[in-house]
Design brief:
Order of helices and strands: HEEEHEHHEEHHHHHEHEEEEEHH
Shape: globular
Distance between the termini: 56 Å
Largest sheet: 8 strands, mixed
Radius of gyration: 23 Å
């Protein structure tokens, strides 16, 4: 097949938005909406400090909250610095902009609300202080290797034929060609949903063509794809052509998808939190519409080499508010019981402070699991110097002869939870070593 013709055809169909397995036929037919399960990964970009959230320490050389009169609180076995969020100046925010308070969540409020739904995994050995490798490991289970993210594996295996199968606005979202990554703003999404409208915001008011003309264009496209498919034999090209046909079958679903009114946080201090919550809204809309399987999201600002005490408190409060928004909106949409959420970071911080009152990279961190298939509780330990404690493979209790939890163990668990461990795509990207029962009750 002529390369120029292939690229022209791909660009015309918005090929960057979708990827799918081979279609047996290019005949148009109604697409079946995907109903779940759904998977969301939120990444704390830069590396959060669990000492300030879910793995607190009393040693004042590792934190600054106890000297500030902030106690370590507990809720049903979860420990956390009981630090407030309503004193905005302590978070490095303008005290006059009180309108931001509903978009910040304290550690206590989070654990009191989600005590029965969250699993904390402490003492994860990321084996790196490098941002890129840490992000890769958090997203795929293996750092420094060209592996697809968990979201890409889940999307390609469970619903690779969906037009927006894998949605991303950050984090490690490599796909290795298994499925395409969709990055859409609300405005961009409307344009994709209504390709034959000159004013996509008001469908039907200014179409480029009459309906009969659009039908003829679609028929010509199908015939052209069929002809090209017959004339070439490259698997990747064949898959791309099939993906275009599949995407066109989703036109009706795309056009009818209900987009939310995007959140607008007052003031100018929480732009990153606003972006996270907007991407959560769009991801949930794609889930509800039956078009997506997985989503990769991120909140930055955690690389606190200076002013660590205020920075970590502020970013963690934004992150927890975003997680809360996800579950609140998912429940309103009736899809919360189909969602599994994983929260990760490049690595941890510290353990001690530097001369700029920041904390540098540290290869020990924590992760959260919530939602479908996840029992509540806390597992994993770090010692008083914030080093990971080895665990017994069966009981997950401290054992000098045991093993350290790694992101590989976390991703083995995620693949098992999604039912894709033995799938063909997971088989191409194995995670070696014996799994740990991270979801044991």
């Amino acid at each position: 097949m002529n390369r120029r013709n292939f690229l022209r055809l791909g660009a015309g169909a918005g090929m960057a938005l979708v990827a799918a397995p081979l279609l047996g036929s290019t005949t148009a037919r109604a697409a079946t909406p995907y109903g779940g399960p759904f998977y969301v990964q939120i990444h704390a970009s830069g590396g959060w400090d669990p000492i300030y959230f879910c793995d607190p320490k009393a040693d004042a050389t590792l934190q600054r909250y106890t000297t500030a009169g902030i106690a370590i609180g507990t809720v049903d076995g979860f420990s956390f610095p009981d630090q407030p969020v309503d004193t905005l100046t302590e978070l490095g925010l303008d005290a006059a902009q009180l309108g931001v308070l509903p978009y910040l969540m304290s550690n206590r409020a989070f654990f009191e609300k989600y005590r029965s739904r969250v699993r904390v995994i402490n003492g994860i050995d990321t084996r790196t202080n490098n941002h890129d490798i840490g992000m890769q490991a958090a997203g795929s289970g293996l750092g420094g290797t060209a592996y697809p993210s968990f979201g890409a594996l889940a999307a390609s295996t469970l619903g690779g034929d969906k037009a927006l199968a894998y949605v991303s606005s950050g984090g490690y979202d490599a796909t290795q060609g298994l499925v395409a990554t969709t990055r859409l703003s609300a405005g961009g999404y409307v344009k994709v949903a209504h390709p034959f409208e000159s004013n996509a915001a008001a469908p039907g008011t200014a179409p480029y063509h009459l309906p009969t003309t659009i039908d003829r264009i679609r028929q010509a496209q199908r015939e052209r794809v069929a002809s090209l498919t017959q004339s070439q034999h490259l698997p990747r090209v064949d898959a791309a052509l099939s993906a275009m046909s599949k995407a066109r079958m989703e036109d009706g679903t795309l056009a009818n998808l209900e987009l939310p009114t995007l959140i607008d946080i007052p003031g100018n201090q929480l732009g990153d939190a606003e972006s996270l919550q907007q991407q959560i809204q769009l991801s949930l809309a794609a889930f509800k519409g039956g078009l997506a399987v997985a989503s990769s999201l991120a909140l930055g600002g955690f690389d606190t080499h200076a002013q660590h005490h205020a920075g970590q408190r502020r970013q963690i409060a934004k992150l927890l508010a975003g997680i809360d928004a996800l579950w609140t909106q998912a429940e309103a949409l009736g899809i919360a019981d189909q969602i599994t959420l994983v929260v990760t970071a490049d690595f941890g911080r510290g353990p001690t402070f530097n001369v700029d009152q920041g904390k540098d990279h540290w290869p020990v961190t924590s992760a959260l699991l919530m939602g479908r298939g996840v029992p509540a509780g806390r597992i994993g330990y770090t010692d008083d110097g914030y080093k990971p404690v080895k665990l017994n493979r069966t009981t997950l209790e401290p054992d000098p002869a045991g093993v350290r939890i790694t992101y590989g163990h976390l991703h083995q668990t995620l693949r098992e939870l999604a039912g894709i461990t033995d799938g063909p795509n997971s088989g191409r990207y194995p995670i070696s070593g014996a799994a740990l029962p991270l979801l044991r009750v």
